Each structure stands twice: as structure tokens, then as C-alpha cells.
């Protein structure tokens, strides 16, 4: 069937041109205490690096918009779409365990909220849009390097079925931005269900404005947890904290199962709706190290991979403290109890599928722990180990291990456990392959894409990676090279908070 490009056909398909996005900006209708209205500051000579048709579909945006000159102009900050109301959100938060009284959108603007009849309401947030009242001493800009990393990693997470913010496009420019060295300025249009953070509540709590804590809680319930609105106030806010605790636990359980290290789990980087938010010095595990620290700036290892579950609860306690004007101590304790079961259920479900087990049993934790211990001892690749285990012939998995007696003993126990399955071998292997990605966003792949894009001559690596990361369980034989373990130069890349 040929692609229809007429306005009539766009309407029939529910797709809209760039100037007909349906904005309805509920956050902008909150009191002015919550934000500062701010126009974006445009980039010089903007040009499109990559645009994401999958995210365009969420907005009911016709992909032909990518070729419209207004697309690059508006999403590089050189203007705004009709109906947008740009603003910088104010919030605070705990950074590396220390409270910072005022943070806020220092290099990004909430352009507004687009409503899709099919896919609901989405925030459009432009990163790199220039200085705001919350920039402190920063320039308000984003660099191409960090923009490409977030663009690709948010799609990698979506491809793995992990709740996440996403991004519509990356735009490069000739605007110089100075970090450790001069870099190329860029913008990223982030698309998310919400940009409300734990730190939003902390800001109003610590400035002694409980009435605005309540206003924000009511807003979040109305927009994201509508089923709670009918509850009496004595139950409503505890139910909100319970929901947020469960969603956060489920999210971090998924991170642990897929080998994702966030790197900067400050409370201002925690989403109230349980989405992965703010991709800075993240990394997916290559060689398995449970105590891996991906952030070069994290000298004490506060946000090491193995500590993420504990930090998630720590941040929920910070949120609970900020809600203490609405929930009593007993209610807070009850609400926070939702975190651990949700984390374990999420983690066990993903690991069950990776191992090909029909139903998780208590003894399976020991079986999994033994495997992870062997992988850690020999620094086996995390994702590819499970992918190799999903092959009918386990030799590709077994032969990677040096300690053959140990892995053979584990395989014997594993096969005994599989004998308890009711499903067929074929169904088991299919389940395992659908749970064990062939492609992950390794740091060396991101760096290759960045290096090519910074020359302004080759954006193909970005787009190739976008393709395989959106469907990471598929074979993609023509792009097989993106599934390889890192070369020597790519094994110890240092990633910091600089962006």
C-alpha cells in the first residue's frame, strides 16, 4: 500500500502536521510558585541529527514533519510550536545524600503538554534551551555528546520494556558550548508522561509551604493517578505514596535485571510516575561486576550498581518526608512497604524469563545467585551470557568460562530445574530469547556514534543504533557488529556528570 501524504489521509490516520499538535498545558495552569515562564534561546545553524518515528506516533505527529523546516527551528529553540507555553520548573532535592535547596530546570524548558486521542498526554521538554532562573552559574546548554547518549539510551530502555522518558529528536548546531573542552551545542526534545520529580515535593516542603505540597499532590493524582481521586483525604495521599513506592520498586527491579546503572540517583532525578529520568553517566554492564560504578564523579560509590535498590528506598524516604504534612508516620511506613515486594517481583519475573523457568520458586534465587557469582568471578559479559544460554546448544555459553567444573556443575543443577517446567523446550528458548537482548547501548557504541556525529558528516551510526535498540531481541544480521563485546579501548571509558 503506498504511503498517503495528503492532509485528508493524515487526518484519517489520526496523524497531524507539525503546526497542529494539540497542546493542553495543565502544569502551566498551576500557581506561578511552581515555575518561571521563559522563552527558549535558539541555537546557531541548527540541523537534524536524528528524529524518532516511534515517538512521533505517540504524539500523533506525521513523520513528514521531520522534513518541515519548522521542525528544526522550533525544536532547536528558535521559536515555539503554536500552543506551547515554555516554562522552567522549580524543584530541589538531595544530591549525593546532601540537600540542595534550589535546583530546577537549569538547561531545559517544559514547552507544554501534547494530548493524543490515542496515546494520552505527553510532556515536551526541550533540553539545551538556554539559561533559566535556575541555571545558577551554568550556561543552560546541552552538548551533542550527552544529547545523543540520552536519545539512544531512552530508546534502549523502551526497547527492553522498562518505563522511561523518551526523545523525539536530537538537533546539532554551530553554537559552542564549553565543558572540559569546547563542544558542539545541541538540543534534545524529551517526551515523557511527567516531569514531576521527588524534588518538586521537597522544594515546597523545605520552604515551609505545605499548602503547595498539597496542591502538587492533588495535581499529580488528577493527572497520573486518577483512580485515587475518589478516596477520602485521610487515605488519598498515603495511597499516592504507596503507588509511587511500588512503581519505583518495579522500575529499579527492571534496572537490576537488565544490568543498567543509572549513575546519578539523586532525589531530583526520580520521576513521580516511576519512569527512568535524566540520563547522565549511565552504563549497561559489560563484564559483570555487581559493584560497578559508572559515574567517574561518584568517588564514594554511592550509586554503584549493587546499591541502586537501597538508594531507591532512600529517595522514597526523602519523598515521604516531603509528604509528611499529608500523611502520618504509620501511613508513611505502610506506604513504603510496597517498595521491596514490587522490586523483587519485577526482578524475579525478568530473571525467570531469562533463565527459561515457568514459575519462580524460592530456591531459584540460589540457582541464579550461583550463576551471577560465576559470571562475576570471570568477568563474563552480562547480557550476552544470558543470550548464549538461550541457545539450544549450551556450548556457546559453557565455553566462555575458564572454570569448566564449576560451570558444568551449575549447568547440571540448571537442567534439573528445567525438568520441572511444563512448557516445551522450543517455547522455553523462545521465551529466553525474547527476554535476553542481543543489543544493548554499550558505552563504546555510544562513543562511536558521538564521534561520527561530531564530525557533522555521519549520523548513520546514531540511526543504526536507534533501529537495533528499539528491537534489541531481534537478530538484525546486517547490523551484527553492534552486538559485539567492547574492544580494549571501549572497556573503561570514563563517564562523568558533565553534560
Structure description:
The protein is of the alpha+beta class and 499 residues long. The protein is built from 17 helices and 12 strands. It has helices at 7-13, 53-58, 69-74, 144-159, 198-206, 210-224, 233-258, 308-322, 329-336, 339-355, 364-377, 382-389, 395-398, 404-418, 425-433, 443-454, 460-470, and strands spanning 35-37, 47-51, 87-89, 93-95, 98-100, 108-116, 120-127, 142-143, 166-178, 182-192, 260-261, 283-284. Strands 2, 6, 7, 8, 9 and 10 form a 6-stranded antiparallel β-sheet that branches. A two-stranded antiparallel ribbon has the order 1-3. It starts with 6 loop residues before the first helix and ends in a 29-residue tail after the last helix.
Amino acid at each position: 500500500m503506498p504511503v498517503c501524504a495528503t492532509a485528508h489521509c493524515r487526518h484519517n490516520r489520526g496523524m497531524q502536521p507539525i503546526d497542529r499538535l494539540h497542546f493542553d498545558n495543565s502544569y502551566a495552569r498551576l500557581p506561578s510558585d511552581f515555575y518561571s515562564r521563559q522563552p527558549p534561546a535558539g541555537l546557531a545553524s541548527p540541523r537534524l541529527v536524528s528524529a524518532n518515528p516511534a515517538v512521533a506516533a505517540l504524539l500523533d505527529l506525521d513523520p513528514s514533519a521531520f522534513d518541515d523546516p519548522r521542525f528544526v527551528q522550533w525544536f532547536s529553540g528558535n521559536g515555539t510550536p503554536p500552543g506551547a507555553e515554555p516554562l522552567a520548573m522549580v524543584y530541589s532535592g538531595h544530591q549525593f545524600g546532601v540537600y540542595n535547596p534550589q535546583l530546577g530546570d537549569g538547561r531545559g524548558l517544559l514547552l507544554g503538554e501534547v494530548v493524543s486521542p490515542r496515546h494520552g498526554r505527553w510532556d515536551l521538554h526541550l533540553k539545551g534551551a538556554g539559561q533559566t532562573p535556575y541555571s545558577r552559574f551554568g550556561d543552560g546548554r546541552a552538548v551533542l555528546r550527552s544529547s545523543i547518549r540520552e536519545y539512544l539510551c531512552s530508546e534502549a530502555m523502551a526497547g527492553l520494556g522498562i518505563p522511561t522518558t523518551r526523545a523525539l529528536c536530537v538537533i546539532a548546531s554551530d553554537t559552542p558550548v564549553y565543558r572540559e573542552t569546547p563542544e558542539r551545542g545541541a538540543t534534545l526534545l524529551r517526551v515523557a508522561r511527567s516531569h514531576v520529580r521527588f524534588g518538586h515535593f521537597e522544594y515546597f516542603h523545605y520552604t515551609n509551604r505545605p499548602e503547595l505540597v498539597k496542591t502538587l499532590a492533588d495535581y499529580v493524582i488528577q493527572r497520573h493517578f486518577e483512580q485515587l481521586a475518589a478516596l477520602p483525604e485521610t487515605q488519598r495521599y498515603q495511597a499516592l505514596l504507596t503507588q509511587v513506592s511500588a512503581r519505583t520498586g518495579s522500575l529499579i527491579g527492571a534496572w537490576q535485571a537488565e544490568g543498567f546503572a543509572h549513575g546519578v540517583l539523586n532525589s531530583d532525578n526520580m520521576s513521580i510516575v516511576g519512569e527512568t529520568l535524566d540520563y547522565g553517566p549511565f552504563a549497561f554492564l559489560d563484564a559483570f561486576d555487581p559493584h560497578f560504578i559508572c559515574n567517574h564523579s561518584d568517588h564514594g560509590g554511592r550509586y554503584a550498581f549493587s546499591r541502586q535498590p537501597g538508594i531507591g528506598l532512600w529517595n522514597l524516604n526523602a519523598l515521604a518526608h516531603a509528604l509528611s504534612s499529608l500523611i502520618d508516620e504509620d501511613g508513611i511506613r505502610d506506604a513504603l512497604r510496597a517498595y521491596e515486594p514490587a522490586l523483587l517481583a519485577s526482578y524475579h519475573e525478568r530473571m525467570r524469563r531469562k533463565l527459561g523457568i515457568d514459575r519462580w520458586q524460592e530456591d531459584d534465587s540460589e540457582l541464579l545467585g550461583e550463576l551471577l557469582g560465576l559470571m562475576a568471578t570471570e568477568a563474563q559479559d552480562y547480557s550476552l551470557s544470558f543470550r548464549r544460554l538461550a541457545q539450544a546448544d549450551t556450548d556457546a555459553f559453557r565455553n566462555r568460562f575458564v572454570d569448566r567444573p564449576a560451570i558444568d556443575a551449575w549447568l547440571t543443577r540448571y537442567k534439573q530445574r528445567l525438568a520441572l517446567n511444563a512448557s516445551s523446550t522450543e517455547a522455553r528458548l523462545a521465551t529466553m530469547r525474547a527476554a535476553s537482548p542481543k543489543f544493548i547501548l554499550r558505552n563504546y557504541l555510544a562513543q562511536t556514534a558521538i564521534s561520527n556525529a561530531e564530525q557533522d558528516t555521519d549520523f548513520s551510526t546514531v540511526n543504526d543504533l536507534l533501529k537495533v535498540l528499539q528491537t534489541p531481541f531481534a537478530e538484525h544480521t546486517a547490523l551484527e557488529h553492534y552486538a559485539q563485546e567492547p574492544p580494549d579501548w571501549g572497556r573503561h571509558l570514563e563517564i562523568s556528570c558533565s553534560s
